[in-house]
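User: Round two. Same drill as before: sequence, then structure, for each protein.

Assistant: Same drill it is. First protein:
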Amino acid sequence: MDNESLVAFLRSQRWAVEATVAADVQPQAAIIGYAVTEQLELVFDTLATSRKAANLRANPRIALVIGGWQDGSERTLQYEGMADFPTGPELVRVKEAYFKAFPDGPSRESWADITYIRVRPRWLRFSDYKVDPPLIVERRFPEHGVLRIPSANKQTEPR
């Protein structure tokens, strides 16, 4: 599965469940609205005072699950990555992607403590159980978000 197909799937969805870990090693999860860039980066807004923001400042590792929300929607993406809080031109770039997906986003910029988080992929697993045999594709990415296109890894796995 190429980047274009992954971006198309990610853009067909709007919501993800994100999971982070607090400094006291307690799990935290929340549903978020996200946008995706052509580089497979995810971006979302949150309050700087939120648990997820605090957790990601201390430990930038994040896991997300996207898709599979409705009956018959048997396509999902597991996404593990590294989060950061972009500034300068990078913040402008990711906010542009976010506002395109969420036109109401600029109205939240007046909120005290609004912040934007970018997630760069480290590992993805796309699963499509609508086809027989199921399509399972895993992709690994190098540490700094520089994308490498490995060959597709198709395999059949039981649900």
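Second protein:
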Amino acid sequence: MTSHTAAINEHLALEFQASHTYLAMSIWLRERDLIGFSSYMLNKSTEERGHASKFIAYLVDSECKVQLPTIESPEREWQSVKALFDKVYEMEKTVTKSINNIYTLSEQEGDRTATAMLDWFVGEQLQEESEARFVLKRLRLADSSAAALILLDQQFLDGTLLANVKAGGAFDVAGAGGGAAV
């Protein structure tokens, strides 16, 4: 097994652990009637399993051995929604670091198919960290205001909270419909 395929097998633990943790977060949020936040984290859980599946497909297609990891039971309690999203952001940064490491190893080993596969993950992680950072900034602004938290929850529920971030952010003038001639 090459070093980059060994690193991919190790990385699977991060993807599956994130999926499991995000599911626990979804449950915790649902128990507090934060349906929008809960739905978002449930979708993130499913997304992380999909990421693991992409890595597994690469390993299988490359005739490499897949080593499924043991996953630890995730935390089940957080002090606040902000503390929960602090954990999300921390986990996403860890995943990004791991992907960057795999990319470097793949380049060093000259595996172009691996770097081509990883290109998608590099862009995905930029988006994942951007979303987590945006939510954290909104939660900091909301501070301890229950009304603000409910508003953010409703924006998650109706899909408007992250629409601008998913569309490319505030600086994507053309994508936001603001492409007026200069």
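The first helix runs from residue 3 to 31.

User: Perfect.
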